[in-house]
Amino acid sequence: MTLDAENLRSAMRAWSAGVTVVAAVHEGQKHGMTVNSFTSISLDPALITVSLQQSTRTHEMVMGSRAFGLTILSAAQSKISEIFAGHFPEIVDRFSGLQTETLVTGSPLIVGGLAWMDCRVVETFNAGMNTLFIAEVLAARGSGEGQALVYHNRKYWQLSQLPESGEKI
Questions:
Q1: pLDDT in tens, 110-147
Q2: CATH number of residue 76's parent domain
Q3: Rounded Cα–Cα distance for residues 126 and 115 (Å)
Q4: Considering the domain boundaries, does residue 12 fall inside one?
């Protein structure tokens, strides 16, 4: 039995995820893309993983530089998410008008995010049409304070805290 790709897409819409921008600099060029396939995998050593589609410019730049910056976006940054997702093809420079900073590798991090991680690629795995990057976090900033941008069922959402255990809903 062959899995229909649209059935898988529909099922995956039930999964909610935070929204990040992964960005890299290589040979004087910088580029980034919206990514929600991001996970912390170890605190010691500090490792995360991201999955990038192999046909993207960001993938090419991360492969070339062996480094990337990851910005966890705030709820106020949904437009930035759309720009880096390529929803505005007329925008050639996705960083135009954005304030960025760098930490260790020179990879751009977007000011106004909830948190930032500057990473060095330590391992790659071919994963179908994607590459799974395992990266060491060289520097991190952010306290977790603020409203996160969440993507669920093709729409952006904000989180709301549930009542403490035992409180009435």
A1: 999 999 999 999 999 999 999 999 999 999 999 888 99
A2: 2.30.110.10
A3: 28
A4: no
